[in-house]
Amino acid sequence: MKPRFRPSLTALEQRDTPAALFATSDQSGVVTAYSSDTWSQVFQVTPFSDVTGPVQVTTADVNADGTADVIVTPGRGGAPTVKVYNGTDGSLLTSYTVGDPSDTSGASVASAGTDASGNALLVTGAVDSGVGTVRIIKASDGTVVDKFVPFAGFTGSLSVATADLDKDGTSDIVVGAAYGGAPRVTVFSGANRDTLFDTFAFESTFTGGITVSVGDLNGDGAADVVVSAGNLGGPRVQSYDSTTWQVLQNFFAFDSTERNGVQASVGATTVGGTNSLIAMDGNTGAMAAFDPTTVTTITAPTFTGLPGSVAVTTTGPVAIAAGDAGMTDTLPDLTAADWQTLDSGVQIRDVTTGTGTAVTAASTVEVYYTGWLKDGTVFDSDRSPKAAVSFQLTGLIQGWQDGLIGMKAGGIRQMIIPSSLGYGSSATGSIPANSDLVFEVKLVSVS
Fold it and tell me: Where would I find the PPIase FKBP-type domain in this sequence (predicted)?
């Protein structure tokens, strides 16, 4: 555990709405950007020539020129790469990875407001360190400002969407397990990451994954959640009222005997039109639009491809979730009566007992932590800017290995580590020789 230096992060705030633009992806992966005012084509690109199939799209004003830019990620079969295209002329602004570069589960992306400096933020879902991980990142370069694992132990990619579902002024994060996962959809509060809704949209034995989207289907002013079956599933679409969490619609958008999935989104099919459910057949790429109340087929969309999450306007920024919530900012009470001494000499004290996967000697752990000397001096922490980090347990000092084994994900543990199980007689960074160390650790995930 050596000191690292990280820039500070200010609170998020909403920026002015950029010039209206939306983007679509067709079945072959061609992305087309349209003016939301006139529905005329602005530009067209093929971002991932080596990936067959539609890509994920959203928009945000990344270069702060007043015009929305187009952000894309590949679907299944592609590496977790984000590409950002200038909304004015379609030129490539930047490209970066948001997960394990060798993983080909694809990625998803949604706009997430801005930070206090006006930098556009994104929410992404991709495999990171072997597990499906949600990241909040700077759109300009992929810098991670927060991340979390929504489904412990799930090794596939994730589908993400954002909207202010509970009308508290911050956009909430909707997450679904992609291919290989059960059809679980969970809504996390953008303010504090509390779970607002958690269900299996379809039969729990289905492992073809799901795609999530958001949009106001019942005209109550709040975006609702739309879930569509992924690869190997029928073209089934189910939506939920974000106020009551009751099912709004549950239907097959195309031939129910097909098993190539469907992608559904929300948007208007004519200039100035009201919202409709828009679906793309996973087998043929055919498009259909449905009345959001009766799910009867209405006029087919007048554009090629499926709207990305940009077709839905988010009403607030995503706050940096309190992933380290419950942790202390001051030296733990070293005289408390509930410290336990392990056989190795490490002392532990559980602030919160987790309910997830338990740590073993072979585990990789994702944690928030702070380290103190016994005089209260902080020598290391990953809590600024609240970005959890991952370690293989065998690569840590012996005191951490002894103190974390058996701890369960979701828990918060404090540890007093004797110098002999820390850095011993060697001075390390700002840690003097022969120093006992005090840590508080919040265990985010175990893999």
Answer: 362-447
